[in-house]
């Protein structure tokens, strides 16, 4: 069915997922299956607090999506063969990123539950473990992608449809992405899995938007249209200009412990005692 089939498959899969979640929730009688009125039973102060915490996250995700669109425009205008190479690599990038999303979700749950319950020390320990686990996972995944680069790219060339330029560009881009997997994904797990779980939703916006819109996008545009550098160089500088700076900023903020901003009374009381115990200002 071609493109039409892909569209139908996407719609059906999305609705099937929603129906499945609702059926499971109904069978288990879990929190998602609560009375409708309880979803709108909140106090004004809680609503304002919720909006204050959630609004930076919404801004972050929207601005990030727009930045991705801008980068795609740059790649597409450099030639369809390069853009096809990026599209191929993103297929494997999304597969690797799915593992990171699972890791990040587990991190957010463990850190958020501990901090919210007032177990600050446990929350910090969990966060430390995930900060160390992400690079280890990045090395394993990056090494696997580099080792299997030719068989994976060849999956898109079984009929010989890819040009030599697209194939070679895809291989090189996959190597570049795999080599930057640690610095590419470490900011994600700190911002989404740790900072937000600790109650700090504003720092991630500053780091993400600053590094993307003030560094990565300008560098990519200048290198592509002004300096007219080769596409692999443009792609590599895009990664380096954003990820290296953001990784440094995220790690510095992480070890400052300023991301610990509990939203519960138990968490706030425990945080004050934890800071006093470890002499943290």
> How many distinct beta strands?
0
3D shape: globular
Overall radius of gyration: 22 Å
Calculate the mean pLDDT score and round it. 92
How many domains make up the coordinates?
Answer: 2
* SSE-based structural type: mainly alpha
Low-confidence stretches: none
Distance between the termini: 62 Å
Helix segment count? 11
Largest sheet: none
Share of residues in helices: over 70%
Order of helices and strands: HHHHHHHHHHH
Classify the beta-strand content into a percent band: under 5%
What does this structure look like?
The chain folds into two domains: about 40 residues, no CATH class; about 240 residues, no CATH class. Helices cover about 80% and strands about 0% of the residues. It has eleven helices and no strands. The radius of gyration is 22 Å and the shape is globular. The N and C termini lie far apart (about 60 Å).
Q: Any chance you could write out the topology, listing elements then pairs?
A:
Elements: H1 2-28, H2 36-39, H3 44-77, H4 80-116, H5 120-147, H6 149-154, H7 164-179, H8 181-195, H9 203-226, H10 231-254, H11 265-277
Helix pairs in contact: 3-4, 3-9, 4-5, 4-7, 4-8, 5-7, 5-8, 7-10, 8-10, 9-10
Summary tags:
11 helices, 81% helix, mainly alpha, 281 residues
Compose a concise summary of this entry:
The chain is 81% helix and 0% strand. It has 281 residues and is mainly α.
């Amino acid at each position: 069915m071609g493109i039409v089939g892909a569209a139908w498959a996407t719609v059906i899969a999305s609705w099937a997922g929603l129906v499945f979640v609702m059926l499971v929730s109904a069978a288990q009688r879990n929190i998602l299956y609560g009375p409708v009125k309880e979803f709108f039973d909140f106090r004004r102060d809680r609503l304002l607090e919720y909006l204050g915490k959630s609004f930076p996250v919404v801004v972050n995700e929207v601005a990030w999506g727009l930045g991705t669109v801008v980068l795609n425009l740059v790649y597409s205008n450099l030639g369809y063969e390069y853009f096809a190479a990026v599209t191929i690599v993103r297929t494997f990038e999304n597969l690797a990123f799915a593992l990171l999303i699972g890791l990040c979700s587990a991190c957010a749950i463990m850190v958020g539950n501990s901090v919210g319950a007032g177990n600050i020390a446990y929350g910090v320990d969990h966060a430390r473990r995930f900060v160390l686990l992400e690079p280890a996972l990045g090395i394993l995944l990056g090494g696997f992608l580099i080792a299997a680069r030719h068989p994976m790219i060849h999956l898109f060339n079984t009929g010989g449809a890819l040009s030599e330029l697209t194939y070679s560009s895809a291989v090189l881009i996959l190597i570049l992405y795999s080599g930057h997997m640690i610095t590419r994904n470490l900011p994600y797990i700190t911002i989404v899995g740790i900072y937000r779980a600790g109650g700090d939703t504003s720092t991630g916006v500053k780091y993400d938007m600053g590094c993307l819109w003030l560094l990565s996008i300008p560098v990519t545009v200048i290198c592509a249209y002004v300096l007219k550098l080769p596409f692999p160089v443009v792609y590599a500088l895009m990664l380096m200009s954003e990820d290296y700076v953001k990784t440094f900023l995220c790690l510095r903020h992480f070890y400052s412990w300023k991301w610990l901003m509990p939203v519960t009374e138990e968490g706030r009381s425990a945080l004050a005692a934890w800071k006093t115990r470890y002499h943290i200002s």
